[in-house]
Amino acid sequence: MESKQALSCLAALAHETRLAIFRLLVRQGPEGMAAGEIAQHLAVPPPTLSFHLKELERAGLIDAARRQRQIIYATDFAGTRALLDFLMRDCCQGHPDLCGGAASCAPTDILEVAS
User: What is the pLDDT of residues 80-114, one digit of tens each?
Assistant: First the structure.
């Protein structure tokens, strides 16, 4: 992930409603939720919800899929993982024990050799 994409993701999450939507969808897992369910659960009017969902989708943090007459939104776990990897890329100065063993905490020279 490049800095510009990371900034897009962070900007999308830097809004109370979008962060609540994202966290709700993370809890739902890959099955996701219909837009109407999200609106009801978070008490967000449908037009407002549509705007926020579009922003999260544009940032690559959620995906939309049509299931019959509904649109189901789910976390894009690959996009989310890419953001987390970007944020943690230079973490811990080669001491992964400082970060609780996060997978992204390998020293950058090891990551370059592995690529």
Answer: 999 998 888 877 776 666 766 555 444 444 344 33
The string of DSSP codes covering 10-65 is: HHHHSSHHHHHHHHHHHHHGGG-EEHHHHHHHHT--HHHHHHHHHHHHHTTSEEEE
Average pLDDT score over residue span 63-77: 94
User: Which DSSP symbol is given to 106?
Assistant: S
Measured distance CA(76)–CA(95) in Å, rounded:
29
Separation CA 14–CA 22 (nearest Å): 11
CB 42 within 8 A of CB 20: yes
Domain boundaries along the sequence of the chain: 3-79
Single pTM value for the model:
0.79
Say yes or no: domain 3-79 is CATH 3.30.70.2740.
Answer: no
* C-alpha dihedral (13, 67, 50, 63), degrees to nearest 10: 20
Chain segment 15-34, per-residue pLDDT in tens: 999 999 999 999 999 999 99
Task: State the DSSP code for 104.
Answer: G
